[in-house]
Amino acid sequence: MQRLNRDDGAVTVIVALLIVTLLGVAAIAIDVGNLFWERRALQNGADAAALAAAQDFASGNGAAAAEVAARDFADSNNSRGAWVESFTQPTSNSVRVVTRSGNIDGEVPLNSILAQFLGRETYFARATATAAWGGMGGGSTVPLAFSWCEWDRFTNGLGIDALPTANLTVFHHTSSASDENDCDGPAGQDYPGGFGWLDTNGSGTCTADVILGQVGGDTGNSPPVPASSTGCTSAFFAGLIGQTVLMPVFGDVTGTGSNATYDVLGFAALEVTGFRFGGSLTGGVVPCGNPNRCISGRFVAYYDLGQEPVEGAPDYGAYVIGLTG
Prior knowledge:
Blueprint: H1 8-58, H2 62-76, E1 82-88, E2 94-103, E3 106-107, E4 110-111, H3 113-117, E5 122-123, E6 126-135, E7 138-141, E8 146-147, H4 148-154, E9 168-172, H5 175-181, E10 194-198, E11 208-211, E12 213-219, H6 234-238, E13 244-254, E14 261-277, E15 281-284, E16 293-300, E17 302-305, E18 318-323
Parallel strand pairs: 8-13, 17-18
Antiparallel strand pairs: 1-2, 2-3, 2-6, 4-5, 6-18, 7-11, 9-16, 10-12, 12-14, 13-14, 14-15, 14-16
């Protein structure tokens, strides 16, 4: 009697099991890929939403306006749309946004191949972003500082809560200017031989890379960089008219001559309308006469995106807004 050794049925079972396994692996790969791209898109939306909300808070627009901005930016910065699930303030100068797959009108689930095998057809993805705003710890500025005394006078002692909107003149003090601007005293005068000029960053351009603390001063009433196509020329300053520049605010001065330093407390933003400096440099609506040296303009709110704010940095209208988590 001959035994029959046929395994057709076993092979069929094995193939069927392998197909199910392969389909499951393929479903996992597809779902993981979809989830990865969805999370990436959601994170872009959450980051944009948190930054937009932080900018609204920094502008004083309030929580309601900030939340509307967050929802708009979360949705518009995600090709599939994003729904803001949570909008909170962890601290007084930060905002956290949690986005969920969907659109501005509500959550929309993602289709899942694997979930269908498990009795579910959809799933959701989330992303979280936190942004903060605050004073600047440093920046690239014009190499020209002015005193906290003048800032305090401009704002009537109320600081950023009374950001001046009128065109104002900042004096870089001579003996006559100090009488005119009523800012005598250690925190209101440049050092002997100084007119507010700072050491430049050495690149040949008319800028100073300034951080809070002691910053070297440059003597004389003329700009600190010799006249050149890339230095502090008449053309350079003329190009500032109508532009917003960062100006360091100092609280005290130490030393004299080339060894003098300004104690930089923070930064203000000035929309320039005119100036008179040494070397017959004038431009715009010249705000003062000889022998005074001055710059005029309108103080504005200024935002620099991308940096984290420095804790405790004073606020003179120039902020940094950055992601912190």
